[in-house]
Amino acid sequence: KTHYKIAVLPGDGIGKEVIPEGLRVVKAAAQRFGIALELVEFDWASCDYYAQTGSMMPDNWKELLLPMDAIYFGAVGWPAIVADHISLWGSLLKFRREFDQYINLRPAQTFAGVRSPLAGRTAGDIDMLIVRENTEGEYSSVGGIMYEGTENEVVMQQSIFSRRGTERVMKFAFELAKTRARKHVTVATKSNGISISMPWWDARASEVASAYPDISWDKQHIDILCARFVLSPERFDVVVASNLFGDILSDLGPACTGTIGLAPSANLNPERRFPSLFEPVHGSAPDIYGKNIANPVAAIWSGAMMLDFLTNSKGAGHEAHDAILAAIKAVLISGPHTPDLGGKASTTDVGKAIAERL
Amino acid sequence: KTHYKIAVLPGDGIGKEVIPEGLRVVKAAAQRFGIALELVEFDWASCDYYAQTGSMMPDNWKELLLPMDAIYFGAVGWPAIVADHISLWGSLLKFRREFDQYINLRPAQTFAGVRSPLAGRTAGDIDMLIVRENTEGEYSSVGGIMYEGTENEVVMQQSIFSRRGTERVMKFAFELAKTRARKHVTVATKSNGISISMPWWDARASEVASAYPDISWDKQHIDILCARFVLSPERFDVVVASNLFGDILSDLGPACTGTIGLAPSANLNPERRFPSLFEPVHGSAPDIYGKNIANPVAAIWSGAMMLDFLTNSKGAGHEAHDAILAAIKAVLISGPHTPDLGGKASTTDVGKAIAERL
Ligand SMILES: CC(C)[C@H](C(=O)O)[C@@H](O)C(=O)O
Ligand SMILES: CC(C)[C@H](C(=O)O)[C@@H](O)C(=O)O
């Protein structure tokens, strides 16, 4: 394949400011490495669209997105217009599920120029990849309320893990570890407290691990695992976790590196039956929207992951990814810097500076 | 009441080393402040007992413990003899549930003499109390496996929150905030992802909060909340959380202060219908057991919380608590220090040094 179709969904708030900069860099890299991109921008999957139409997306959203090779997503959510659960479950979480994007891949790395809140940690000390199950588990939406409105009221919600859903995320993590220097997988669990689903999750980990004799692995309970992210983050390489635990770890990991505002993510359907989605981890940030001061690095880095994925982590897309990351690293050191990193530059300034290095 | 009966359950591993030091200090404080204690030690709720009898506790454990005012617990677990889920669910988690110890109270504080892993944080910067729901929620043990052994296998586990169980933990947190300088409650949630039980949890928080107009409060999703524990821990005062989220936060909070090995906990039945249980957060630590090098501070601090609770956070027990904490703080600065804090002192040395200051 030499030509890729990308749906661009800037969404809400600073999504609309950072995605243009991401596109600037993605286009520059695509040109340099000879990747032909067809970009199709949509204004839906946004709260503005909801305000006009009463739904987050048009009825034929699936039809429109299915022919795409990837979705480049900004951020969604504008609580003043639409309640979070409506905007999120009406767009982002719908994509993850209906496009079977069962891997949420999120790196956490220390960089020169970005201060880690942990004492003494500098560039290169922390370098982990968090592999989050992205479609099932604790986010099942199955459950309900009993005795509603009485003093006996009880709410129940299921965590649901399928063998297929669990095995595939474990396999993805172990395959990923093969490509890494340290070749280690940490499995997040809580089987001493969550006594039915988590021991079962552990059993799936053991089964899959036994097929990878060259990959070392261990499992750690989520409580002590979070503590160790703070106490000894350099020990982690690939970390695989359920939907909820992965959600927690992929905010905590970047927080420990000081890069929470810079963190990218890839919502992958590795088999490419459906388009995968690439988005910054940060949200729409109503408090800073409109000032052109949002840091575009998370969106740009997400764009780099997209190019890498399009060409199977090989060839032109892979080179483009590495070139973008090198440009990001250079600009994190030299500036320009947006206010979150102590600078005075605008979103546009940073996007241009990164694009110029390509 | 002027006479209190305490069941002492050292349990396994370093529980058997730290509890004697805790008792040394508790006895010294009780004597100084005129509190009459009757201590009854049991060797069960331990894996040794399991190895001899095939169960973690005698059949009449409830009868034996019910007359007690408190349980002073060491640690349980010795995976080489008994699987964790058997030892834990056969003792500690049984107490929490059957004695309706619905509050798990866990402080996290920075101290002089203990290095925080966070850059620039020193004594007094972090001072939070984590209020963990301790009997229901994600630890329900309700669920099961379907299509077992086939490729369609699915495991499900319920999270179950009752109105009574949720309201009482919220009330406890808001009442506690009244006694604090900053009077702020943070409610941990994940209502944007866990779409049935957590919005319901948020509604209970709002209801209870409305009865406390003088207490400020906010709710934060667990992912960003964990990140903020690392990025701006000084902003937290009282944090209330479900069983699972409280478990995570009460390892992460102490980790951020550098005191994870020093962290105490109180498993409370505030109405005193059943005995409450006081235990260090750390486990039985098979790797260091038998060397007399475990840090006894967590056990000693838990003993202080016990004395405070016995007299309703007033009078002699409250004074004893504050005196023990002052002695702990002094010894953390001057030493002796166990190896985990960079010293060469024994468990006994530290226990004696703290007791001598009383
Ligand atoms: C051992 C385990 C079941 C327990 C829990 O998760 O409650 C422990 O982590 C704790 O925090 O007391
Ligand atoms: C917004 C929210 C539902 C979402 C999640 O929990 O998955 C976000 O935190 C994320 O990590 O992408």
TrEMBL record, chains A, B:
NCBIfam families hit by this protein: TTC (TIGR02089)
Pfam families linked to this entry: Iso_dh
Domain of life: Bacteria
Enzyme class: oxidoreductase
Species lineage: Bacteria, Pseudomonadati, Pseudomonadota, Betaproteobacteria, Burkholderiales
Protein's UniProt name: D-malate dehydrogenase (decarboxylating)
Residue ranges annotated for the Isopropylmalate dehydrogenase-like domain, each copy included: 5-354
Family: Belongs to the isocitrate and isopropylmalate dehydrogenases family.
Catalytic reaction(s) noted: (R)-malate + NAD(+) = pyruvate + CO2 + NADH
Cofactor requirements of the protein: Mn(2+); Mg(2+)
Enzyme Commission number(s): 1.1.1.83
PANTHER family: D-MALATE DEHYDROGENASE [DECARBOXYLATING]
Keyword Metal-binding included in the entry's annotation: yes
MF-aspect GO terms: D-malate dehydrogenase (decarboxylating) (NAD+) activity; magnesium ion binding; NAD binding
Keywords noted in UniProt: Manganese, Metal-binding, NAD, Oxidoreductase
